[in-house]
Amino acid sequence: MPSTNLERIVAWKEPSSLIVVEDSTKQASAQLLRELVAGAPKELQSLVLCCIENSPQRALRLVPPGISPVVVNVHSSVYAWDTTPEQTADRAQRAHESTVDGLADCIEEIVGAESSQKITVLLDSLNSLILGHPLSKAADLVKRLSNLSSDVVRIIVPFHGDIPSLHSAPAMTIDAILAHLCTTYINVRHSKDVARGEDFVSLDAQSPAGAVCDVIHKKKSGRVARELVYFEVSQSTGRLIFTVFDDMKGMEEGVQQLKVSTAPAKDPTANLSFNLRLTEEQKSARSEVVLPYMKAQEVTSEPTIYYEPDDDDYDEEDPDDDLDI
Fold first, then answer.
1. Structure pTM?
2. Which of 4, 78, 158, 288 is the most exposed place for a label (fewest CB within 10 A)?
3. Of 86, 85, 49, 79, which is closest to residue 67 (Cα–Cα)?
């Protein structure tokens, strides 16, 4: 089975400099974010974790074990009332304090000082910035971060699509702005939102088994590719396994068809008040009957060509003489 665009993006085989991940209260994107961070080899990657919505201690849950990120703490300036001391020294290489206004400058300085072959900048969420500031500030931040992105620098911006912005207008929404700026837009949805005939209930929210990603990817050639990808957690490795959603439905339908085909066929002539079956003698007599079209196919002589000569009264000077005009 060919790999999906999302699988190639995770493994850095398909360039994508700015990735926007939208989730909701039905299905979170934490599993996918961890997989995006773990896609590159640890010895070749540097991770910059920007904590805006969550405290550094909570945001570090998005980082797979074995990766020590550079933490930028914006949470303390956004939520000044939250003065709980944080213990990040055991997981982080360095910790920086920043404000919303100085976040872009701080990230630019950190990225410029890194020497790794691949650099990932992960924001924990953009919603705290959207709720407390105009959309223009969030758009300016994402635009400046997109200027930093390249084939070796990847920016990941998640946000919650079902949380409304206090400063949005009908003509300008945060999802439209991010979809315009990004190279890959991933909408993480619950599988029951996509499957037909299945109703979503609140108890189904946050399925740990997997989810469906609606992926829109802008390639360097200018072509836009869209796919539905289902991911599930591997029991052996803990990594995500990606499957094109149409292929997954096809496999399920194939299994159902296999079950139907292996079931014993029912006899349509059973339990009738009259007999529709033929005896062996009747079958033998029917096979010996010579049908008319079989005789017509028998060749009895050499093929013959019949030729009918043209009329001799053809006038070359007036070829249309025989037409009634």
1. 0.70
2. 288
3. 49
